[in-house]
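User: I'm curious what two different proteins look like when written out as structure tokens. Can you demonstrate?

Assistant: Sure. I'll show them one after the other, since each token string lines up with its own sequence. Here's the first protein:
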Amino acid sequence: RHIPDHPLVQETLRDCLTDAMDLEGLIAVLRRIETGTIRCVAVDTPTPSVFSHEILNANPYAFLDDAPLEERRARAVEMRRTLPPDLLGQVGALDPEAIAEVARESWPVVRDADELHDALLTLSWLPESEITQWAAYLPLLMESGRAVLLTLKGEASGVKGWVATENRERVERVLEGEEDATLDTIVLGWMESTGPMTTVELAERLHLSVSAFDAAMVRLESQGQVLQGQFRPHAALRTQPSALSATPSPEWCHRRLLARIHRLTIGILRKEVEPVSATDFMRFLLQWQHVVPGSRQHGEAGLQAVIRQLAGFEAAASAWEPQLLRSRMAKYEPELLDRLCLGGAVCWGRLSPHPRLSQSGDMDRRRIVPTSIAPISLFPREDSDWLMKGVRGGTTTIPAEPISQLSPVAQDLHGVLTQQGACFFNDLVRITHYLQTEVEQGLWELVAAGFATADGFDNLRSLMDPHRRRAEGRERARRPRHAAGRWSLLRQADSRQLSAASASEQVAHQLLRRYGVVFRDLLARESLVQSWRDLLVQYRRMEMAGEVRGGRFVSGFTGEQFALPEAVEALRAIRKTSGASSHEIKLSATDPLNLAGVILPGPRVPAVPTNFLVLKDGVLVRAVVGR
């Protein structure tokens, strides 16, 4: 069939094949299967593989079998069983209101004798204790011969119950323990009409043997009719009153009802927060990132939490301490950052490649000029690998010999650090035979290009501070010209490989950690470069696992939005206190919260250290440019 060569058709094909799915990745996998690089192995498992979740949920809306859509979606709820038991009550918990609503709606509605007869046919066996509210319709059924009262024998001798006349003989054989098939029918009828319950609870309601119900549940589970798990909060405390430490009894639920509970749970979670305005969202961000007085962090642990939240964001080197960190700490002391860096907890450096490194040829041989506005990031040392991949994003082409773009001094220093490893400043001067000023300039160039870092942050201060570099006046006695700590390469030829999927997952978590709520428009100024399509894959997976919530949290912005559960609660609190603050907050334009023209109305403010924004109650009061 010929595909029309039309712009709309081409755009639709591109959206479907590249945005909705990864066609190139699929082709690559199929080719590797064809060549034998990837081997397909059939494995029988008790729960679905994570790779099948997309199909089970019919996310691509593909009908891969002739089962009804509801049944295919019902199979998807078994994915909860792939979560560790200790997480089911946290990230995968079903909402109690959803469970109660489904249980209430599934119980038979009886308004006359005919509907009571239908209920008896469904439930098969209905003890007298369960039929009190429908007793007025029983005489009519008995007169017409459509219902009969039976009496149990054995352990539950004397207990009476109602059955439809059509089921009398079969139910009598079940009550005498002679037929399993009809017992399965009774259990299935009750499971279709109630919510999650244990076999102990069902046995108490029907006055039958618990062991018989256990066997019936196993048979129904093998048929795919019911699923077992822990669905209700603290269910074990209701069925095992004597043992808080005992293993909880498994709960059982009909798969159709469990699917409805799952959908209702997702719906309830999405409706818990009404969308807030952009102004309220800005107030939330100021508090989330500890900029609002009263929410600022304290001490070394607080500074480490701030750096953890800002990891991967690049700002001017000269802006980090006086503007970004100081605005988030109740009392900022440079010694705190020095201890974190020298202790190996925090690393600093330029993560994104310098634009000049992507240039090739001899058209412009000007070297990289280091300045105090060179973009620098502070981050936990253990996150360096995925942060480099996340910031670079694979969008910048780096020549095979990027150091060729550097000055001769910087190239020599790079070679020494490659061969010798981490070195003190004086060792670099001794090995290279350059003047101290030349080594300083070369190191500064390596830092600005994203090649070098140091053990301590004071090493960077010594390069940025002209008084210390010249060792003038009192600076000579108060602080040494060169800080303690060694210089080293920030990245060494990408020695550790990290898959794109792993990097996307880490970036998705980091963006949530930074903003609490994430949507496409919010990421306009982000340093972490990932396609929104790749992030959506991660966020949808996280929502299905219960780690994040999807919905509409901020009004005025299109597309899907995702939020951490604790961010949802904070948004609700912000909305209740709207207009409560009269304090003005001064932000540097280099701050990640410089969202003028992104979230807040008005033009964007260039992210340079001399520009500032003044906000009051989430509203941009004024922008100070060039001062």
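Here's a second, unrelated protein for contrast:
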Amino acid sequence: MATVSVIGSRGFGQRLQVSLGDSPMEPVFPVGFGIPDKPPADKPVLSVINYEKRGGLPSPRESAQLASPGLSQQPIPGSGHPYGLDTTQVGVDFVLFMERCCIYHVHQLHDAEEPNGHAFTALAPLLTQAPTVLDDCTSWQIPASELDRLLELSSALHLDGELTPVEMWMRIKQHPLFHKLNREGLQQLSQALIAGVQCFGFGATFEEQFFASTLEEFFGTLEE
């Protein structure tokens, strides 16, 4: 089984995260990652991490990751990707991080029969099994086999001039320098990309030109 967890209270920055019980890797995006110091003007409520519920302050590893995104990391022996970033779990977590702007209105949809693009997000099928209230540390389980299906489903939506988070993840994996990308690098790239997210009520999308230029600029630094 896979566990779906809510990271943060309701507000800007709240997201979902998926973990597999037998996964040797810690989450690529640690608790607290990506929540800014101040919310944007159009989203005045900032998500808050309840560290008391989580047993205290962030772990030393999480604190180091949050404070030093450029921290070096050793390759993982025996992994298909040198840093273990080619797993389904990493892909789903990347997509969920990019879709965080949709979490509230996906969960609050009242008319299940009303057509909406959120049916093609990774969030939507996860939230059908979620509790009524999504607070920090809320969790529930889904069959691990559903993770691959989440990526397949959310890749079915194609938009002219725009990309979905799943399409972005596929292009990142296909980049010739993907093997040089480590966990901290993926965090940096994700922070740069999340600035371009748009959601008009039909799921998170990104302008293709913005994504392409951000990706090439980032991977260009790995060639140096």
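A detail about the second structure: Confidence is low (pLDDT under 50) at residues 64-72.
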